[in-house]
Amino acid sequence: MSIRVSASILDCDFRRLEQELNAVVNAGADSIHLDIMDGHFVPNLSYGTPIARAVRNTVKVPVYSHLMVLAPEKMIARFAPYSDIIIFHIEATTEPEKCLSEIRQAGCQPGISLNPDTPLDNLLPWLSRIADVLIMSVQPGFGGQQFIPESLNRIARLCQWRAEKNLKFTISVDGGISPANSAQVIQAGADLLVAGSTIFKSADYQTTIRALKCLTF
Protein backbone atom coordinates (compact mmCIF):
# COMPACT_ATOMS: atom_id res chain seq x y z
CA MET A 1 0.00 0.00 0.00
CA SER A 2 1.39 3.41 -0.93
CA ILE A 3 1.80 6.04 1.75
CA ARG A 4 -1.16 8.37 2.20
CA VAL A 5 -1.35 11.95 3.45
CA SER A 6 -4.27 13.38 5.40
CA ALA A 7 -4.53 17.17 5.44
CA SER A 8 -5.39 18.59 8.86
CA ILE A 9 -7.35 21.78 8.25
CA LEU A 10 -6.52 23.37 11.61
CA ASP A 11 -4.06 25.71 9.87
CA CYS A 12 -6.00 26.36 6.68
CA ASP A 13 -7.56 29.72 5.80
CA PHE A 14 -11.12 29.26 7.08
CA ARG A 15 -12.23 32.38 5.21
CA ARG A 16 -11.62 30.34 2.04
CA LEU A 17 -12.49 26.90 3.36
CA GLU A 18 -14.06 25.49 0.20
CA GLN A 19 -11.18 26.70 -1.97
CA GLU A 20 -8.61 25.38 0.51
CA LEU A 21 -10.26 21.96 0.62
CA ASN A 22 -10.45 21.68 -3.15
CA ALA A 23 -6.87 22.87 -3.53
CA VAL A 24 -5.43 20.39 -1.05
CA VAL A 25 -7.38 17.45 -2.47
CA ASN A 26 -6.39 18.38 -6.02
CA ALA A 27 -2.79 18.59 -4.79
CA GLY A 28 -2.87 14.96 -3.70
CA ALA A 29 -4.25 14.80 -0.16
CA ASP A 30 -5.88 11.40 0.29
CA SER A 31 -8.19 12.44 3.13
CA ILE A 32 -9.15 15.37 5.36
CA HIS A 33 -8.38 15.32 9.09
CA LEU A 34 -10.62 17.24 11.50
CA ASP A 35 -9.13 18.12 14.89
CA ILE A 36 -12.06 18.46 17.28
CA MET A 37 -10.87 20.10 20.53
CA ASP A 38 -12.94 20.88 23.60
CA GLY A 39 -10.61 23.05 25.70
CA HIS A 40 -10.60 20.39 28.44
CA PHE A 41 -8.82 17.26 27.19
CA VAL A 42 -6.50 19.64 25.34
CA PRO A 43 -6.06 23.32 26.23
CA ASN A 44 -7.21 24.61 22.85
CA LEU A 45 -10.63 24.95 21.21
CA SER A 46 -11.19 24.33 17.52
CA TYR A 47 -14.46 23.98 15.59
CA GLY A 48 -17.71 22.09 15.69
CA THR A 49 -20.24 20.40 13.46
CA PRO A 50 -20.84 23.34 11.06
CA ILE A 51 -17.25 23.05 9.85
CA ALA A 52 -17.48 19.25 9.71
CA ARG A 53 -20.66 19.54 7.63
CA ALA A 54 -19.03 22.02 5.25
CA VAL A 55 -16.06 19.70 4.78
CA ARG A 56 -18.28 16.68 4.13
CA ASN A 57 -20.32 18.63 1.59
CA THR A 58 -17.20 19.79 -0.26
CA VAL A 59 -14.90 16.77 -0.56
CA LYS A 60 -15.36 13.20 -1.73
CA VAL A 61 -12.20 11.86 -0.06
CA PRO A 62 -12.52 10.20 3.38
CA VAL A 63 -12.98 12.48 6.39
CA TYR A 64 -11.30 11.55 9.68
CA SER A 65 -12.77 13.14 12.82
CA HIS A 66 -10.17 13.15 15.58
CA LEU A 67 -12.02 13.73 18.87
CA MET A 68 -9.57 15.38 21.26
CA VAL A 69 -12.31 15.71 23.84
CA LEU A 70 -13.20 14.36 27.26
CA ALA A 71 -15.95 11.74 27.21
CA PRO A 72 -15.83 11.28 23.42
CA GLU A 73 -18.81 8.92 23.63
CA LYS A 74 -20.95 12.06 24.05
CA MET A 75 -19.69 13.56 20.78
CA ILE A 76 -19.75 10.60 18.39
CA ALA A 77 -23.36 11.04 17.25
CA ARG A 78 -22.74 14.71 16.42
CA PHE A 79 -19.83 14.08 14.07
CA ALA A 80 -20.76 10.69 12.62
CA PRO A 81 -22.89 12.10 9.77
CA TYR A 82 -19.84 13.95 8.44
CA SER A 83 -17.16 11.31 9.08
CA ASP A 84 -15.82 8.12 7.59
CA ILE A 85 -13.52 7.33 10.51
CA ILE A 86 -13.93 8.61 14.08
CA ILE A 87 -10.86 8.51 16.29
CA PHE A 88 -11.02 8.93 20.07
CA HIS A 89 -8.28 9.12 22.67
CA ILE A 90 -7.88 6.12 24.94
CA GLU A 91 -6.93 8.54 27.76
CA ALA A 92 -10.16 10.54 27.39
CA THR A 93 -12.77 7.92 28.19
CA THR A 94 -13.64 5.33 30.80
CA GLU A 95 -15.93 3.65 28.25
CA PRO A 96 -13.84 2.62 25.22
CA GLU A 97 -16.19 -0.29 24.57
CA LYS A 98 -19.12 2.10 24.29
CA CYS A 99 -17.14 4.37 21.97
CA LEU A 100 -16.30 1.53 19.61
CA SER A 101 -19.89 0.31 19.58
CA GLU A 102 -21.41 3.74 18.96
CA ILE A 103 -18.98 4.54 16.15
CA ARG A 104 -19.81 1.32 14.32
CA GLN A 105 -23.55 1.72 14.93
CA ALA A 106 -23.31 5.18 13.39
CA GLY A 107 -21.87 3.67 10.21
CA CYS A 108 -18.28 4.84 10.70
CA GLN A 109 -15.03 3.00 11.27
CA PRO A 110 -13.39 3.38 14.71
CA GLY A 111 -9.88 4.48 15.46
CA ILE A 112 -7.98 5.04 18.69
CA SER A 113 -5.32 7.67 19.36
CA LEU A 114 -2.86 7.88 22.20
CA ASN A 115 -0.61 10.62 23.48
CA PRO A 116 3.20 10.41 23.39
CA ASP A 117 3.48 9.46 27.08
CA THR A 118 0.74 6.81 27.06
CA PRO A 119 2.05 3.21 27.04
CA LEU A 120 1.38 1.40 23.78
CA ASP A 121 0.22 -1.61 25.81
CA ASN A 122 -2.99 0.31 26.52
CA LEU A 123 -4.00 -0.44 22.93
CA LEU A 124 -3.64 -4.21 23.13
CA PRO A 125 -7.24 -5.06 24.12
CA TRP A 126 -8.59 -3.10 21.15
CA LEU A 127 -6.26 -3.66 18.20
CA SER A 128 -8.36 -6.39 16.62
CA ARG A 129 -11.44 -4.18 16.66
CA ILE A 130 -10.29 -0.90 15.17
CA ALA A 131 -9.51 0.39 11.69
CA ASP A 132 -6.85 2.92 12.64
CA VAL A 133 -4.30 3.69 15.34
CA LEU A 134 -3.30 7.34 15.45
CA ILE A 135 0.11 7.83 17.07
CA MET A 136 0.50 11.36 18.39
CA SER A 137 4.07 12.46 17.71
CA VAL A 138 3.57 15.77 19.55
CA GLN A 139 1.57 16.71 22.62
CA PRO A 140 -1.95 17.20 21.24
CA GLY A 141 -3.75 20.50 21.08
CA PHE A 142 -1.63 22.85 18.97
CA GLY A 143 -0.25 22.80 15.45
CA GLY A 144 3.32 23.56 14.43
CA GLN A 145 5.13 21.54 17.12
CA GLN A 146 8.36 19.58 16.66
CA PHE A 147 8.19 15.84 15.98
CA ILE A 148 9.11 13.68 19.02
CA PRO A 149 11.84 11.25 17.82
CA GLU A 150 10.80 8.47 20.22
CA SER A 151 7.63 8.20 18.14
CA LEU A 152 9.63 6.22 15.57
CA ASN A 153 10.14 3.39 18.06
CA ARG A 154 6.45 3.40 18.93
CA ILE A 155 5.48 3.18 15.26
CA ALA A 156 7.90 0.30 14.68
CA ARG A 157 6.64 -1.60 17.72
CA LEU A 158 3.04 -1.17 16.64
CA CYS A 159 3.93 -2.34 13.13
CA GLN A 160 5.55 -5.44 14.62
CA TRP A 161 2.45 -6.23 16.69
CA ARG A 162 0.27 -5.86 13.61
CA ALA A 163 2.39 -8.34 11.66
CA GLU A 164 2.67 -10.83 14.53
CA LYS A 165 -1.08 -10.82 15.18
CA ASN A 166 -2.03 -10.64 11.48
CA LEU A 167 -4.16 -7.54 12.07
CA LYS A 168 -5.34 -5.02 9.50
CA PHE A 169 -5.46 -1.62 11.22
CA THR A 170 -3.81 1.40 9.62
CA ILE A 171 -0.96 3.16 11.43
CA SER A 172 -1.39 6.93 11.23
CA VAL A 173 1.01 9.50 12.66
CA ASP A 174 0.06 13.04 13.63
CA GLY A 175 2.31 15.87 14.76
CA GLY A 176 5.41 17.60 13.46
CA ILE A 177 5.36 15.70 10.17
CA SER A 178 7.45 17.36 7.46
CA PRO A 179 9.44 16.44 4.35
CA ALA A 180 12.52 16.42 6.61
CA ASN A 181 11.27 13.44 8.66
CA SER A 182 8.56 11.75 6.60
CA ALA A 183 10.95 9.15 5.13
CA GLN A 184 11.90 8.01 8.64
CA VAL A 185 8.26 7.83 9.69
CA ILE A 186 7.36 5.79 6.62
CA GLN A 187 10.35 3.50 7.14
CA ALA A 188 9.25 2.90 10.74
CA GLY A 189 5.94 1.54 9.46
CA ALA A 190 3.45 4.39 9.09
CA ASP A 191 0.70 4.07 6.48
CA LEU A 192 -0.76 7.56 6.75
CA LEU A 193 0.82 10.91 7.63
CA VAL A 194 -1.30 13.70 9.08
CA ALA A 195 0.04 17.14 8.22
CA GLY A 196 -1.45 20.56 8.77
CA SER A 197 0.82 23.58 8.99
CA THR A 198 3.44 21.83 6.86
CA ILE A 199 0.96 21.81 3.98
CA PHE A 200 -1.12 24.93 4.50
CA LYS A 201 1.83 27.21 5.26
CA SER A 202 3.73 26.03 2.19
CA ALA A 203 3.89 27.88 -1.11
CA ASP A 204 2.88 24.85 -3.18
CA TYR A 205 0.56 22.21 -1.72
CA GLN A 206 1.27 19.64 -4.43
CA THR A 207 5.04 19.88 -4.07
CA THR A 208 4.75 19.58 -0.29
CA ILE A 209 2.40 16.59 -0.36
CA ARG A 210 4.60 14.79 -2.89
CA ALA A 211 7.62 15.49 -0.69
CA LEU A 212 5.80 14.07 2.33
CA LYS A 213 5.07 10.92 0.33
CA CYS A 214 8.73 10.82 -0.78
CA LEU A 215 7.66 11.07 -4.42
CA THR A 216 9.56 12.83 -7.18
CA PHE A 217 8.15 14.61 -10.21
UniProtKB/TrEMBL annotation:
Pathway of action: Carbohydrate degradation
Task of the protein: Catalyzes the reversible epimerization of D-ribulose 5-phosphate to D-xylulose 5-phosphate.
Cofactor requirements of the protein: Co(2+); Mn(2+); a divalent metal cation; Zn(2+)
HAMAP family on file: RPE (MF_02227)
Cofactor note: Binds 1 divalent metal cation per subunit.
Pfam families according to UniProt: Ribul_P_3_epim (PF00834)
GO BP: pentose catabolic process; pentose-phosphate shunt
GO cellular component: cytoplasm
Keyword Zinc: yes
Entry GO MF terms: D-ribulose-phosphate 3-epimerase activity; metal ion binding
Reactions it catalyzes: D-ribulose 5-phosphate = D-xylulose 5-phosphate
Annotated EC: 5.1.3.1
Protein name: Ribulose-phosphate 3-epimerase
Keyword match Metal-binding: yes
Alphabetically ordered keywords of this record: Carbohydrate metabolism, Cobalt, Isomerase, Manganese, Metal-binding, Zinc
Sites where the protein binds substrate: S8, H66, G141, F142, G143, G144, D174, G175, G176, G196, S197
Residues annotated as the enzyme's active site: D35 (proton acceptor), D174 (proton donor)
